[in-house]
Amino acid sequence: MLTIQNLHKAYQTHTVLDQVSLELPQGQVLAVLGRSGCGKTTLLKALAGLLTLDAGSINWAGESMDAVPSREREMVYLFQEPLLFPHLSVFENLAYGLRVRKEAEAQVQQKVVQMLQELELQEHAQKKPSHLSGGQRQRVAFGRAIIFLPRVLLLDEPFASLDAQSRASMQRLFLRLARKYNITALFVTHEVKEALLVGDRFAYMAAGKLQVYTSKDAFIADPQTGVRDELAFWSALEQQTTYQP
Ligand SMILES: Nc1ncnc2c1ncn2[C@@H]1O[C@H](COP(=O)(O)OP(=O)(O)OP(=O)(O)O)[C@@H](O)[C@H]1O
């Protein structure tokens, strides 16, 4: 269980995280919907240990993460733009985290080959990142983040730069692998449909405050999320465009 209590962060007089609390059971995905500038990235970076908080605590399985440095925290932040090692092949990018952890070579080989299959990137294993498409690069970054089974995966608009088709295929891939590897994740998105698709639980962030809902229905029903309006819009559009002979 990930337990976050009363996180607070301000830049001068500007409060960016305002008493943020949540509990997320292991293996669940929390979809966090919010507009630009509401503090979503700050929340994820705080969890990853990439910035210092003014107050609050972060616990994993009852253990405090507050004094644990970022590289030992195993709460991995996945950037919107995939950050890969440009001089390493896809295979070596995937193997990197396992090699740092000094896993036996046979295990590294076996895990990377399996991950290449999961990502459908077998034929690209020896390519450098610059020879991949944006969607393929994002898949490598995703695979590299989950291959060593981090405690929590922190996804910051991970598919925002992809075209609609690649985005849909990444969403399906994320859902399949999240279930298979029992991934605990915070998935931040601007997109209502994406939030509904990937989340087991739902939250809405505005002006540094995080509202966590007790159910999907409660998330949809809250007018501030804009979910109901957007669903109504798509439904109206569908009715308008339905072909009637
Ligand atoms: N280092 C910093 N110094 C001062 N203000 C900052 C700093 N980092 C972020 N902010 C401010 O904090 C607020 C929240 O930023 P954050 O990056 O968390 O937003 P966000 O919700 O992720 O937005 P977006 O969706 O546009 O990425 C913004 O108003 C931003 O300008």
Automatic annotation (TrEMBL):
Q: Is this entry keyworded Transport?
A: yes
Show where the ABC transporter domain sits. Answer: 2-232
Alphabetical keyword list: ATP-binding, Cell membrane, Ion transport, Iron, Iron transport, Membrane, Nucleotide-binding, Transport
What superkingdom heads the lineage? Bacteria
Q: Which GO terms describe its molecular function?
A: ABC-type ferric iron transporter activity; ATP binding; ATP hydrolysis activity
A Gene Ontology biological process noted in the UniProt record is: quaternary ammonium group transport
Got a GO cellular component term for this one? membrane
SUPFAM superfamilies membership: P-loop containing nucleoside triphosphate hydrolases
Matching entries from PANTHER family are given as: SPERMIDINE/PUTRESCINE IMPORT ATP-BINDING PROTEIN POTA, SPERMIDINE_PUTRESCINE IMPORT ATP-BINDING PROTEIN POTA
Name of the protein this chain belongs to: Putrescine transport system ATP-binding protein
